[in-house]
Amino acid sequence: SDVGPQKDRVVTEEEWLQKWELGNIGFHKEQVHPLLQKHLDLLLNGRSGLRIFFPLCGKAVEMKWLADMGHNVVGVEVSEQALKEFFSEHSLPYCEEPVPEISGGKLFQSTSGNISLYCCSIYDLSSTIVGKFDGVWDRGALVAVNPCDRQRYVSLMINLMEKNSSYLLVTVSYDPNKHKGPPFYVPESEVQSLFG
């Protein structure tokens, strides 16, 4: 359970973009995640029409799944390719516009208006730009964030959450001495200390 070998590992934005360009996206799943299906009631808590945030969203199929249920989905992803593939693979018309507050940032929004995907670094976002959320589905974000950036990431997530929001987090458990990540090993004790 010693995360020593991964502590200083850094994956650059360019490396993530290259993964998408080369199709090296084993983290992408074609089906709705079984843990989201199983724990959906925890995320929704009997509420409808929620604003749900997908950090480092890629082209997650769960975004359309939740939007089809009547929720508003907002995601952020550094790869424009991933966002365009999301819309094309679901045959969803969208428009693209710049985000004035973010240098080089773009917003891809479904014409139905219920899916808004930001193309930028997650650290360029703030609640003044994207608002606050009733729920967060973190399937591969915390475990993809560089270990040195975890505190910054969690602080942003907490800032983006409404008072009574729900946060569903999926991590992976393995021996960090045998795999350099990502996904990175985030032990439960660290999850507890990060989120408080």
Automatic annotation (TrEMBL):
<comment type="similarity">
    <text>Belongs to the class I-like SAM-binding methyltransferase superfamily. TPMT family.</text>
</comment>
<dbReference type="InterPro" id="IPR025835">
    <property type="entry name" value="Thiopurine_S-MeTrfase"/>
</dbReference>
<keyword id="KW-0808">Transferase</keyword>
<dbReference type="GO" id="GO:0005737">
    <property type="term" value="C:cytoplasm"/>
</dbReference>
<protein>
    <recommendedName>
        <fullName>thiopurine S-methyltransferase</fullName>
        <ecNumber>2.1.1.67</ecNumber>
    </recommendedName>
</protein>
<feature type="binding site">
    <location>
        <begin position="16"/>
        <end position="27"/>
    </location>
    <ligand>
        <name>S-adenosyl-L-methionine</name>
    </ligand>
</feature>
<keyword id="KW-0949">S-adenosyl-L-methionine</keyword>
<dbReference type="GO" id="GO:0032259">
    <property type="term" value="P:methylation"/>
</dbReference>
<keyword id="KW-0963">Cytoplasm</keyword>
<feature type="binding site">
    <location>
        <begin position="121"/>
        <end position="122"/>
    </location>
    <ligand>
        <name>S-adenosyl-L-methionine</name>
    </ligand>
</feature>
<dbReference type="InterPro" id="IPR029063">
    <property type="entry name" value="SAM-dependent_MTases_sf"/>
</dbReference>
<feature type="binding site">
    <location>
        <position position="77"/>
    </location>
    <ligand>
        <name>S-adenosyl-L-methionine</name>
    </ligand>
</feature>
<feature type="binding site">
    <location>
        <position position="56"/>
    </location>
    <ligand>
        <name>S-adenosyl-L-methionine</name>
    </ligand>
</feature>
<dbReference type="GO" id="GO:0008119">
    <property type="term" value="F:thiopurine S-methyltransferase activity"/>
</dbReference>
<keyword id="KW-0489">Methyltransferase</keyword>
<dbReference type="InterPro" id="IPR008854">
    <property type="entry name" value="TPMT"/>
</dbReference>
<dbReference type="Pfam" id="PF05724">
    <property type="entry name" value="TPMT"/>
</dbReference>
<feature type="binding site">
    <location>
        <position position="139"/>
    </location>
    <ligand>
        <name>S-adenosyl-L-methionine</name>
    </ligand>
</feature>
